Amino acid sequence: MLQLFADGLIQGAMVSLGAIGLTLTYSILRFANFTQGELVTGGAYAALMALAGFAGTAQRAGTFAGLSFGWPMLVALLLAMLATGGLALTIEWLLFGRLRRHGSAITLVIASFGASLALRNLIAFGFGPQPQYFSRDLQIAIPIMPGVRLTPDQLFLVGVTAALVAALHFFLTRTTLGRAMRATAENPALAMLIGIDVRAVVRWTWLVGGALAAVAGVFLGLTVQVRPSMGFDLLLPLFAAAILGGIGNPYGAVLGGLLIGLAESLSVPWVGSEYRQAVGFLVMLAALLWRPQGLLGERA
Amino acid sequence: MSAGPTLAVDALVAGYEPDLPIVRNASLHVEAAEIVALLGPNGAGKSTLVKAVAGLVPVSAGTVRFEGRDITGRPAHRLIGEGLAFVPQTENIFTKLTVAENLALAGHRLGRRLRERVDAVFALFPDLARQRGLGAGRLSGGQRQMLACARALIVEPRLLMLDEPSAGLAPVMVAQLFAKLREVRAAGITILLVEQNVKAALALADRGYLLVDGRPRLSGPAVAMASDPALAGLYLGSAA
Description:
Chain A is built from 12 helices and 2 strands, in the order H-H-H-H-H-E-E-H-H-H-H-H-H-H. Chain A is mainly α. Chain A has a two-stranded antiparallel sheet. The termini of chain A are far apart. The radius of gyration of chain B is 17 Å and the shape is globular. The A-B interface holds A 173, 176, 179-180, 182-183, 186-187, 189-198 and B 54-56, 75-78, 80-81, 85-86, 88, 91-97, 101, 104-106, 108-109, 151, 155.
């Protein structure tokens, strides 16, 4: 039971990171961005490419105590965050920015669905459909407390996620750019009146959302595998998490992600692992019947 | 600074849709340190006019000059740096930010002077100082208007435009708010005020314009307008 709880927490951490981007772009641009899944995938492949780039040094660098990777992985993670933020900006520049001038919200949603499909196939075409791995070494799970074993990678992942969520909180409440994001989400016209360049805020939103999606993708790759459909398979839990937490609220996305991860994991003994995603949705539906605006959402 | 008017609107045509102008050939001017009231029945285009000046509604013809510079059609986020601040009628504060966060964000370009300016607006609105840590969504209606004014004043604008600041406020709050606006003007800030509350607005203002169907029909000193039978007739007619 405790082990399932721990597994759920790890799954939830990855869902949370991906859902933050989804909820941020929703809060600023008011549309459901289906390419968020491909940003997760893109982040994982960007890290793979970066690692391949310094393959020679990676061998010599060795690994951190217990972890399956060393500093090249951390550098690759940072590069992947930048690259995925860049990918998100490119999609915004090529597609969403242009459509927003004329189209309605539904145009953007359908366009994002199409872009998601195109990106997924582009990745499969470029990297091949077969799964890839960051490391083929087996990791020994170590006992954390009675009845709970986690691999060092998983512990690292939980630690980094907690640090990123704390950094996001600091960013949103203490920095001008973060406050400007919250302000733009609430009232873009008023944000313009006080001299905020709303277009710059939009660009930063894509950058932050893309970077966090990349972290989710790399972690998913570390704990499972890297394949072209990995992000798309995560998309429904991402939406479930963002909506459960209250769409538009980044703290809600984190809470929703953890709850979805836990619900999926804890249901495995009863329903088997094939149906775990459905359980996440049942939890979301039940929560929405009780609180239609989401757990941390505000009534419209 | 030029010797001409602080704000000069000339033959302005503006509206949300280009082929559906709401402001039709409107001209008006506001002199330095003057309080001017823009009056008129519902749908006369008062709000659209100030929003067009503030860069929130597209202008299709005419010019807007601020201190002699042409600012026609300039986007809203670039006007605050020019010294022109606008307080919308509703949704004029960020309810999900605290009072202090609202002010800090409005003054984000001030750098080191932010603290000094926050203290200055808190001196003008002491009620807000006591509630600086409170979520702005929890303020009363009157306090919200005070915060909206405070956030506009923090960047030391030379022209303050307000869209129906008295709407929905109890008479005692309107009196308080208008007393603050007198203090603001005493500090040399020019004010253009859109109002439905004709009596209170003309008691505050130096001059007034009566806008009907998108253009000024009457204008003159506030004292004279207050006793003008045409104005009374128009309002009684629309209220009946």
